[in-house]
């Protein structure tokens, strides 16, 4: 009983925190800084810089797309219901110019700090897979060529699983055989010599 009385006496001696002091504590806990932008960077931080090789590549894509679109006018565009020979290249050229414009805006917007290094391994493996497919589809057949394309593309992925090559390679080979040889009846052999 005596300890309870001592506690209540201590409580009243210290006093109950007032509403005003409680609100002040809340105000102090709220951060007073706003997110920094590129304009008000502290000294010593890297300044905003444009990655010129990427921007030049985007400008090249835009110019290539516009050149394809301009060249397609000489082939005859036609209408949507009766397309001429230039309709498809015109659409592809405009889409290429549009994608180049979107990527250029993204390159212009991002800062040097936001960039990640270029993934060389996946790019090299995918390009090697496409070349391997192009060189082997007639000499080995569609199924082995698609399997090699899938295998090389998967190897480019960091931390790939060898079983993934077997599963995806087999599935893509079977799908390609069903669609292109059975479905479209293209003059390709599934496996050369079989």
Automatic annotation (TrEMBL):
Keywords: Membrane, Transmembrane, Transmembrane helix. Residues 1-24, 29-48 are annotated as: Disordered. It holds the Pfam family TctB. The keyword tRNA-binding does not apply. Residues 59-188 form the DUF1468 domain. It comes from the Bacteria. The chain crosses the membrane at residues 55-75, 87-108, 120-152, 164-188. This is Tripartite tricarboxylate transporter TctB family protein. It comes from Stutzerimonas tarimensis.
